[in-house]
Amino acid sequence: MEFDTLPLDAQAPVTAQVRNRIGHLTLNQPATLNALTLPMIRTLHQHLQAWADDPEVLAVVLRAEGEKAFCAGGDIRSLYNSFQAGDSLHRVFFEEEYALDHCLHVYPKPTVALMDGLVLGGGMGLVQGTTFRVITGRAKMAMPEVGIGYFPDVGGSYFLSRLPGQLGVYLGVTGVQARAADALYAGLADACLPRESLEAFDQHLDALQWENNPGETLRMLVTSMTAKLLPGAELKAMRRVIDEYFALPDIASIRDALSREDRPAYRDWAEETIKVLDSRSPLAMAVTLELIRRGRSLSLAQCFALELHLDRQWFAKGDIMEGVRALIIDKDKTPRWNPPNIEALPHAQVLAFFDGHPVHTLDTLATV
């Protein structure tokens, strides 16, 4: 491919390079925590599609520049501005982002995601479909959308709904971050590599001998340098009560049960969880609960289709515009959710978002 032979542009938002028959894609916007823009999404997808058809490329590695984040999500400010201006960026962005994420889930060659620091929202969409999800001990993974009045998308209805027990519901409804040990325990990552070993891992990639199946060759390398379990998983310690509370019928029931928790081992956790729930958009939490539960019986492409169905309504009818205004634009940190509390939210308002959603796959979700 012609663009692979060009010199590496160190200033490009996404850099691409082929070394030792491995395509390397690097998010290169550390100043913005590698937040995804539409041009970045298009560049990533272009290279992935080209490498899928190139017999000289055997595998793909995703990584990011900067010490703070692999990717902290999408460029939500631009989507806010798009809706305010009445243009189509916010609609096109989600269609193309989901197509990229879907491409990674069904990619015909093994993929490795190397993650250091924050992996949030759109960053999770990039990595959850990869073959080997490798984090460092500094990783913090989350789908924090409910905090800005949105819902977990980018395939969240698929991968969260398939986590053990009620962990996916808990992580989606609260938006809390999972540290490295928790990410491994929950199944959001496959292995942990010490950050100081990243350079050595890269050197091993450059020296790999492709005598066997590429996927098996990569698996052996990942296994030889990483750990699959880490001590100190808080989710493991709280799994019993997470499964107990987050299987309840609705957000009001969950909050009410948490308020009555009196077991010493769980009381502090319950109080903190209530504080988190009270800070989130009631509408976003309720839609998230419904979305994840529906996602359990849907295929990957059907999950993306349902999320896109919600997207097309959410900027006008959901809480995202107010959440972004309060937390990102004006930064007054006092969003005026509609409704303001979970008790005032009729379930019919939640279900209305799901009316008429397509059960078939979307033509926009191009496979490779």
Describe this protein's structure.
The protein is of the alpha/beta class. The chain contains 18 helices and ten strands. The protein has helices spanning 2-5, 38-52, 76-85, 89-105, 122-127, 156-159, 167-174, 180-186, 198-207, 214-225, 234-237, 239-245, 251-259, 264-279, 282-295, 300-317, 320-329, 347-352, and strands spanning 14-19, 22-27, 59-64, 69-71, 111-115, 118-120, 132-135, 140-142, 178-179, 191-192. It has a six-stranded mixed β-sheet with strand order 1-2-3-5-7-10, sandwiched between helices. Strand 1 and strand 2 (22-27) form a beta hairpin.
Can you summarize this structure?
With 368 residues, the protein is of the alpha/beta class. It has helices at 2-5, 38-52, 76-85, 89-105, 122-127, 156-159, 167-174, 180-186, 198-207, 214-225, 234-237, 239-245, 251-259, 264-279, 282-295, 300-317, 320-329, 347-352; strands at residues 14-19, 22-27, 59-64, 69-71, 111-115, 118-120, 132-135, 140-142, 178-179, 191-192.
Outline the secondary-structure elements:
Layout: H1 2-5, E1 14-19, E2 22-27, H2 38-52, E3 59-64, E4 69-71, H3 76-85, H4 89-105, E5 111-115, E6 118-120, H5 122-127, E7 132-135, E8 140-142, H6 156-159, H7 167-174, E9 178-179, H8 180-186, E10 191-192, H9 198-207, H10 214-225, H11 234-237, H12 239-245, H13 251-259, H14 264-279, H15 282-295, H16 300-317, H17 320-329, H18 347-352
Parallel strand pairs: 2-3, 3-5, 4-6, 5-7, 6-8, 7-10
Antiparallel strand pairs: 1-2, 8-9
Total of helices: 18
Instruction: Determine the N-to-C terminus distance.
Output: 17 Å
CATH fold group: 2-enoyl-CoA Hydratase, Chain A, domain 1
Number of self-contained structural domains: 1
* CATH C-level name: Alpha Beta
Q: What is the 3D form?
A: globular
The structural class is alpha/beta
Over the alpha carbons, how many angstroms does the gyration radius reach?
20 Å
Percentage of residues assigned to helices: 40-55%
